[in-house]
Design a protein that fits this description.
InterPro entries: Thioredoxin-like_sf (IPR036249), Thioredoxin_domain (IPR013766), TPR-like_helical_dom_sf (IPR011990). One of its GO terms (biological process) is response to stress. Pfam families: TPR_20 (PF14561). This is Co-chaperone YbbN. The structure is a single chain. By secondary structure, the protein is of the alpha/beta class. The protein folds into two domains: about 160 residues, Glutaredoxin; about 130 residues, Serine Threonine Protein Phosphatase 5, Tetratricopeptide repeat (Alpha Horseshoe), CATH 1.25.40. Helices cover about 45% and strands about 10% of the residues. It is built from twelve helices and six strands. The longest helix is centred in the last third of the chain and has 18 residues.
Amino acid sequence: MTQQPFAGRGAIDLSALKRPAPQPAAAPAGGGPGGGPRGSGGSGGGAAAGSAYAVPVDEQNFQTVLQASTTAPVVLVFYSPAQAPESARMAEDVADLVGQYDGRFLAGLVDVDAVPQIAQVIAQASQLPQLPVPLLMVFLDGRPAIQPIPGMVPRDELNTLFNELGQQLTAQGITGRHQPLASAPGGEDENGEAGPDPRYAPAQDALAAGDIDAAVAEYQKLVDSNPADAEAAAGLAMAKILQRTQGVDLNAARAAAAADPDDVDAQIMVADLDLLGGHVEDAFARLVELVRRTSDKERDRAREHLVGLFAAVGNDDPRVLKGRQALASALF
């Protein structure tokens, strides 16, 4: 992803902190049991154990953390052990979950009891009298990428959110990844530095360049060489969706599907477009109903395509589990 200046409309004004941003320090090893965040106490603290992509935020590293969103999304979690003790658990969940995406996200954990100045800056930027806690914000290119999410968010919903964001990044050709803040087992190069898995680089570079056909070919090579590679299989499935929907007019596709509910091609196209737009459950429901209404070869086509969408989203996603149950009900 092309680096952008950290400025412009919508960026957070950091002048209220009145501190220069030093160079980022490597996250120290260790941490509390269970991978939970620690209060920074204004000194930076330690990153959440078990995740190389989560760091406590204080006044000194706040600007650096936000600047990292020019590479890939930064997820800020504002929590308060004093005001809302349960909010610390949500921060722990975010820290743990982002570690499963190999650098697609960086979590910044903000203990508002320890660093109230940061909460004040965000509240002012959001035109709020006071920042609610817990609060989750996602930044890309220094600007909020989604509406802030106040209140406790269950772990499974957080997982769904990150899955959707990851899909949308892939669909837009945004493939940047954060470097780990600490060395991760099995992720070091010849210089001892951790980095993204180079196997996926050709496919990701093709997506970034807008060459969908090349991305499909690269992912296909990975799947052919290792059919058990779940990440490659998911990348191939998503790249094929992008390939099928290139140049398709959404309104025309929806009109065609509405005019003929049993047209398998028309329904599949809208399901693909829904999934790319983040409407995953709508895409699944459309094809489940198509399976329910059709028979023989048409039913097989609808079912096989739905299974392909399951692969694109990921078999561990709770929406896929529900979708599989609905498919089984439609079939039997």
